[in-house]
Structures are given as C-alpha cells and as structure tokens.
Amino acid sequence: MYMRTISQAIVIFLAILMLNGCKKDEQEIPQQEIQFVIDHSSGSTPINFFDVFQNPAGNSFKTSTLKYILSNFKLVKQDGSFESFPNIEVVNEEFDTTKTFKLNNVADGSYSALRFSIGVDSVQNATLVNGGGDLDPSDGMVWTWNTGYIFLKHEGQFLDSAGILQPFVYHLGTNSGYTEIEIPLQSFTMEGKLKTIRLNFDLLKAYGAVNTLNYTIWQNQQSITPSDKPWILAFKANLKQTFSIRSIE
Amino acid sequence: MRNIWILCAIFIFSSCAKDVPVPGDDVAQGPTPLNIQAPFGLPQLTIPQNNPTTLEGVALGRKLFYDPILSGNNAMSCSNCHAQNFGFTDHENTLSTGIDGIAGTRNSMPLFNLAWAPALLWDGGATDLESQVLAPITSPIEMHEDLTNALDELNAHSEYPALFEKAFGTKSATSFLLMKAIAQFERTMISADSRYDRYIRGDAQFSEQEIRGMNLFSDMNKGDCNHCHTLGGLFTDFGYRNTGLNLEYNDQGRFLITLNESDKGKFKTPSLRNIALTAPYMHDGRFETLLECVQHYNTGFQQHPNLDPALAFSVHGRLSQTEMEDIVAFLHTLTDSAFIANQAFSAP
C-alpha cells in the first residue's frame, strides 16, 4: 500500500515534469498585441447579404461576396519611424473568424497613424508560392493565368434602370490596384497588454467617397481589360477612404 | 507496476524529442536532394530557394503530371496536351481543347528547358513555374478543376499521402506542395542533346544543306531567325513579339497581361529546339509544316502596327525556295531524340 502511494506520487511528479519539460525558458514577457475587429457597413447599417442598400450612384444593390486581403500593417510614430507587422489577412464578410486578427509584439510607445494595404505589394504579388504568405491559392483570391492575387472581391446584384436584377462583379488586383491606406490615430499609446481597434469598412464610401461608381457603367470590372484601368484608379481613391476607426479600447 | 515505470520512462524520454531520424526510414531522413546541372551549351541555372529539387519531389511531380485526378472529370492530365513524343506539345489539336470539349485560342506550348524560362505561357502570364501549374488545372476551358476538390481527392487517395510525405515531410497535399512537385519535375525536363548539340561538341557531322541552313539562320539579311531564336543555348530570347500573323488578333497575347496597346498581338518567342516535333506551329497552331513557318517570315507576315521591327524592316521575299528548305533542314537538326525517349519523363 505504502509502495503504491509512493509510486503514484512519483508518476504524478513525472507527469508534471513531463508537461513542463518541453517548454523552453520563455521569459514571461507580456505579449503586447493589437486586436483588430472589422465591421462591414453600408453607411451606418451593418451589411447583411440579403439586405438591399443604395449606393451613392443610386443603384439598389445587395452583396453576395465581400472578401479582401489586408497586408503590410505599420504603426507610425510622430517622428515618421514605424513598426512593421508581417500579417497578411483575408477578410471575408461571410466568416466572422476572418474579421478578427491580431498584430503581435507591438512595442511600447505612442503612435500617430495606422497604415495597411488592400492587396499585397508587387514583390508578394509576383508569385503564388508563398507570395502572400500562407494565402492558399485554393482560397480563390488568385489569378492563375496572370500570376497575382485578387486584392478585393465585391459581388452581388443590382437593379438596372429598367428595374431588372443584374449581376455586378468587382475584382480589384494587379500592382496598380494595390491600395495603401493611412488612418490617423489620436494619441494612441501602447502600454497595456492588449488594445482592440475596431475598424469599419463602409461600402457607401467604396462607391462614392471620391468618385461615384455606377454599376450600370462599371458592371463587370475584373482588372483585366483596358477599361479597368480608369476603374482601378477611381475605385482605389475611394478605398483609401473606406476604412475608419470605430473605437479603440 | 514495473510496466508503469517503463512506460513513464519511455514517455518522458520521447516527449521532448522531435523528428528524431530513424535509420533506414527515408521519410524521417527527408527527401534526397537532386542537383540539376546545366548541360554543355546551356546557360547557368538557378533553382528557386523555396523549392529545392529532390528525387521524391520530382517523382511525385511526374506522377501528378500524368494523373487525370487533377482534372474536373478525372479524364485529362497535363500529358493530354503535353505529349512527350511531340516535345510535350499538343499534336492532336490545332487549338488545345479542355475536358468540356471547348477549344481555347492557343496550341499548348512545348515543355522543356523550363528551368531557364523567366515566365511561362504564350503571353508570359505566369511568372514562375510553380505559379503556372495552377493555370491549366483551374482554367474552365482546360482541366476545369476546383483546386480544393483536387486536393481533397489527393488527400483521400491510397498512394498520394505517402508520396507527399516522402517529398515534403507531410502527408497533407496542399496547393503549395502540388505546385512545387510539378514544378520540380518540369525543371528536370532538359533537352540539350540534339544533333546540333553533338555537332557543336564535335561528335556529329552536318550535311552541306544543314550547314547552309545554319548560316542562313543567323544571316541578318536572310533568315535572321537568330534575331529572336538565339542560335545555340536555349534557341529563344524569351521576348514577346508581334510577328504579323494577323491584322486583327482575336487573342491579343501579351496585351492580356500588360494591357499596353503596344503589346497587342505579341506572343512569346518559343524555343526552336525539337521544333520538327512540335507541329502545329504558332500560338494558334495555324501552320502544319516548318516550311510554312519560314514562308511566313519570308513573305507571309502582315503590317500590324505592332509588327516587330526586325520583320518590318526585313526585305519581303529575301529567301529563295532553296534557302527556305535549307533553313528547314537545319531546324531538323534541333530534334533531341534522346529527350523524347527518356523514360524519366514518361508516364510512371
């Protein structure tokens, strides 16, 4: 009986040893993280795939796909220097898990702006093998016949002038479609363990912040024809204004 | 009781160990590196760092290349349009045709010496060999397969998980590994042992006609083929050119990639190695014979606004019939019979 108790104690001791044994000597440095939560809206109303909204051009539309790549996150300090983060995130309105992600190892300090991009930069866009990090080509955000990533997809239906339901397809890509975004931060200081930044993506801005895009004129834009060139520029100018900070906690 | 002790001991000693190689276990030892050497006459060759060539990777890529599992109806493999006998081109169709019976706008390109190609496809749309792999698999008018579906089929297959593990250390087939394996196999497909190569090495003789053809090939005022199909080495400069095939192109070639007006009707200069095997010719397979091709460059080209200057300034009809035949005779010396018979590239 006594033997048995000792044996059990040793087994438990060894088990504890084993469970701890593989951990490397990681100092408990607090992991400072910024968590992003992304909301999609049409104006002030949250997007729902079945809801009908009106864009600034007056088209009544509903969304069936809203999916885009975010990359090259930077936190900019007053003096212009910045911290970079390797994240490449695919945000998909359809899946809530994709609308939350974290930047890790954020250094202490005050930051005056947040930068990130829609799409991947020209270096990453030059190959489908790990060009976009872990972005898997089976995720549907690639062009295979013209190597590169689809930076943003917005698809749905709208009512044309005759009141007939028509599809619209917006696929933004190519290096000229790479859209850098900068959002000023009001006295943002990283000192706690975790900050949560809630970003809002407003479709009405995507279609009218700078240039009003009408689905009857720009209906099927896939960044593959010469007519897409002016569309890319017009859309890109809008996208720069599409994100705003809803809250920082 | 004793067993518990032994179990504990084993557990503890094994719990921290990671991937300890077991002698004789080829999976644990990892794949065997394969050093691809540039043969005599071909330029230095660079293998991408993110996809080193291995015996197991090449073997997997070869199996995939010949497996219809990668097509939507599991009836068409890469080899359907890239047949070894014909320098890995499509000899069956003028315009290569996918699983749904829909013809595209091009005849499939030959596959060899791809390790040197700076871009793939007739329009250079694919920027590396790995990325190119997905194009025909997913194209709705080619193999018309959903990539996720193809990977599911590979992962459920009786042989592939073990082959992926041997090649890449993981049983799980992913897009990246699929791309890497086929690209590895394609990099091994080197052709540099034609009679021309042996002639250059001093191991073969040319007939008088073949020598005349070779000289006309490089003569700026005659064939001037050399202008784009660089004599020796790879027999292409990998440029994109409008060769005046049409006044209006229904397939705008390079323009589809760059959207630059000046690229309308431009297509990649293909290698002339194995050219006698790769009929039909031109991106749209319009010519059946090499003589027709030479005739095109002699008198057939049209004055498209983007016509390549080398052709635009060439003298119309500068080659006689005999001279054209001489060039064709020379082109036949570029056939690498050993390459098309090489079992390493045939169906496993």
Characteristics of this structure?
heterodimer; A: 249 residues; mainly beta; 9-stranded mixed sheet; 5-stranded mixed sheet; 14% helix; globular; B: 348 residues; mainly alpha; Cytochrome Bc1 Complex, Chain D, domain 2; 2 domains; two-stranded antiparallel ribbon; 15 helices; 2 strands; 1% strand
Q: What string, H for helix and E for strand, traces the elements of chain A in order?
A: HEEEEEEEEEEEEHEHE
Enumerate the spans of chain B where pLDDT stays under 50 for 5 or more consecutive residues.
4-24
**Alpha plus pi helix count of chain B:** 15
The N- and C-terminal alpha carbons of chain B lie at a distance of 53 Å
Most extensive contact: A-B, 25 and 34 residues
Characterize the quaternary organization of these chains: heterodimer
Count helical runs of chain A: 3
- Structural category of chain A is mainly beta
CATH class of the largest domain in chain B: Mainly Alpha
Characterization of the model:
The complex is a heterodimer of chains A (249) and B (348). Chain A is mostly beta strands. Chain A is built from three helices and 14 strands. In chain A, the strands form two sheets. In chain A, strands 3, 4, 5, 7, 8, 9, 10, 11 and 13 form a nine-stranded mixed sheet that branches. In chain A, a hairpin with a 5-residue loop joins strand 3 and strand 4 (60-76). Chain A is globular and about 70 Å long. Residues 19-26 of chain A have low confidence and may be disordered. Chain B is mostly helical. Chain B has two domains: 14-190, Cytochrome Bc1 Complex, Chain D, domain 2; 195-338, Cytochrome Bc1 Complex, Chain D, domain 2, CATH 1.10.760.10. Chain B is 37% helix and 1% strand. Chain B has 15 helices and two strands. Chain B has a two-stranded antiparallel sheet. In chain B, helix 3 (55-65) crosses helix 8, helix 5 packs across helix 8 and helix 12 packs across helix 14. Chain B is globular. Chains A and B meet through helix 1 of A and helix 1, helix 5, helix 6 and helix 8 of B.
